Amino acid sequence: MNKSIDERLRGFPAALAEQNELNAVIADISDQAIARVNGQKGPLADYLLAIKDNLNLVETETTCASRILKDYRSLYTATAVQRLLDAGAHVAAKTNLDEFAMGSSTEHSCEGPARNPHNPELVPGGSSGGSAVVVATGLVDAALGSDTGGSVRQPAAFCGLYGLKPTYGRVSRYGLVAFASSFDQIGVFAGTTELAARVFESIAGHDSLDSTTSDQPVGTFAYEEEQARRITIGLPEEYDNEGVDREIRERRDDLVTRLKNDGFTVKGISLPHTDYGIAAYYILTTAEASSNLARFDGVRYGYRSPDGQNLEAMYTNTRSSGFGPEVQRRIMLGTYVLSAGYMDKYYIRAMRVRRLIRDDFLQAFKEVDLILTPTTPSFPFPIGGKVDDPLTMYLSDVFTVPMSLAGVPSMNIPVGHGSNQLPIGLQLTANYFNEETIFQLSRFIEQQYTF
Ligand code: GLN
């Protein structure tokens, strides 16, 4: 038995209570992990992990931070979670999120907002905010989140962590509650490149239960400084504008100067359709969400409104009181963009834009191995600051949604703090299935530079 893990698990409820105000955890499942602690072997046997509460783990509730899933218990375990357990990991908690992973701040949660450990008046980012918080405070060593348009990378940036969104199709979505199926990927939070890579390798790879998973082999990351030094880096002009906080731009420029001094090739590139990313993303993901969330009807899952004289009234009342306002907004938007007469104007056009954005990346990767950008245009914002202004909230995803539209892998790396003591994150994006290249440069930066 691993003594230190056993002690950490037994002390888990007390450690969690100490950070109660951060509201990062929906369910403490450390007792389940204790029950399993004997004989855990494998690459993750020394680590405590948490998972976002839109991932199924049998014998636990899966809430998606939604009233509509009240009392719903997982009937099976998500493939990614099962693979963590098979790798020996101790899964101690299910974490807070924006309802059904729709949001950028973890404020849209029926459990109330999670808070940023660097300053509890600020958001931790979202939608996987709870997972970011528990890694940032050291309560656990790593965590799983899901990233549909930035929900791992942006909270990683706001909390000062490594946060990877793998290539679409790298990690099985079986057992992840669907938001927008052609975008959703399970991702990883960790405090080091090495651990992010280890967790990623444990969960990645083909799964017969998810036909969109790829059978591309998953390597084992081994840092090679010489290999890292040969990586060429592209800086897209579209990610460099006045809308980006000055200190974030300066930190990127500072990193680029250091990389050039160390002999790296850094080039200007263009991703010309970047500006259309947000519009296309919010059309396509709401369309998919409106379809995916149709299953929550008061019959098949969780909550049912007691108030309904007939079937239709029961559906209506269940969905009106079970879903929060952001989820309802997206279901309505998605239903609208798919409706007869509007489908060509919105959905089909957005699909065309998605192709153009993908082509932008493919073109760029003919010239460079990695693309370096800010992860977010701003520092973490105050709780309550954007929650009543959906458009402003959506615009904060401007640098993370293009990679999700294209399906390429992308990771936030922490690069120190601003003068406000808050974390700054930069984003490394690679071509399809080249997570390894991201890890190489990330590790180089982690090892060579202090910020
Ligand atoms: N913030 C984005 C949204 O609201 C991304 C969410 C996510 O990646 N799950 O859709």
**What is the CATH C-level name?**
Alpha Beta
- List SSEs in N-to-C order: HHEHEHEHEHEEHHEHEHHHHEHHEEH
Total domain modules = 1
Sheet with the most strands: spatial strand order:
1-3-2-4-6-5-10-11-9-7-8
Net shape: globular
Instruction: Assign a percent range to the helix content.
Output: 25-40%
Instruction: Give average pLDDT, whole number.
Output: 96
Report how far apart the termini are: 39 Å
Question: Main β-sheet, in a few words?
Answer: 11 strands, mixed
The Cα radius of gyration reads: 21 Å
Helix and strand content put the structural class at alpha/beta
Strand content: 5-15%
CATH fold topology = Amidase signature (AS) enzymes
CATH architectural group: Alpha-Beta Complex
Number of strands: 11
- Which ligands, by name, code or SMILES, are bound? glutamine
Q: Which homologous superfamily in CATH is the superfamily?
A: Amidase signature (AS) domain
Please mark out the parts with pLDDT under 50 across 5 or more consecutive residues, or reply none: none
Number of helices: 16
